[in-house]
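Input (structure):
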C-alpha cells in the first residue's frame, strides 16, 4: 500500500471516529433533554403532513403521544412533539408531530 493510500485510510478512519463521537454526544444531549427518539429528516418524514415513520432511528425509546422527538442529525435538527398516531396494516405506525418552538 502506497503512502498516499495509507494516509487516506488513516484520515478516513479519523473522520469516521470523530463523526461517531459527535453522534454519541448529540444522542446523550437529547436523552438528557427527555427526547424519546431521533430520526433523520429523510424520506420517512412527511414534512407537509407532519408524519414520521421511525424506520431506522438513531435511537428509539417507546414513544407515545405527548413525547418529544428529534428530527434531523447532529448538524441540523429540530424538536417535535408527538400529537397523534396513524396505524397502518403490515407496517409500523406513522407518528403525527408538531414542531416545538
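Output (sequence):
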Amino acid at each position: 500500500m502506497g503512502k498516499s493510500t495509507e494516509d487516506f485510510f488513516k484520515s478516513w478512519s479519523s473522520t469516521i471516529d470523530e463523526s461517531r463521537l459527535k453522534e454519541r454526544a448529540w444522542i446523550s444531549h437529547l436523552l438528557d433533554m427527555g427526547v424519546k427518539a431521533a430520526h433523520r429528516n429523510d424520506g420517512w418524514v412527511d414534512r407537509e403532513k407532519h408524519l414520521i415513520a421511525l424506520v431506522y432511528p438513531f435511537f428509539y425509546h417507546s414513544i407515545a403521544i405527548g413525547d418529544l422527538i428529534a428530527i434531523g442529525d447532529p448538524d441540523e435538527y429540530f424538536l417535535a412533539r408527538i400529537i397523534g398516531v396513524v396505524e397502518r396494516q403490515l407496517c409500523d405506525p406513522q407518528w403525527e408531530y408538531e414542531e416545538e418552538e
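Notes: The helical segments are 3-32. DSSP finds one helix and seven strands in the chain.
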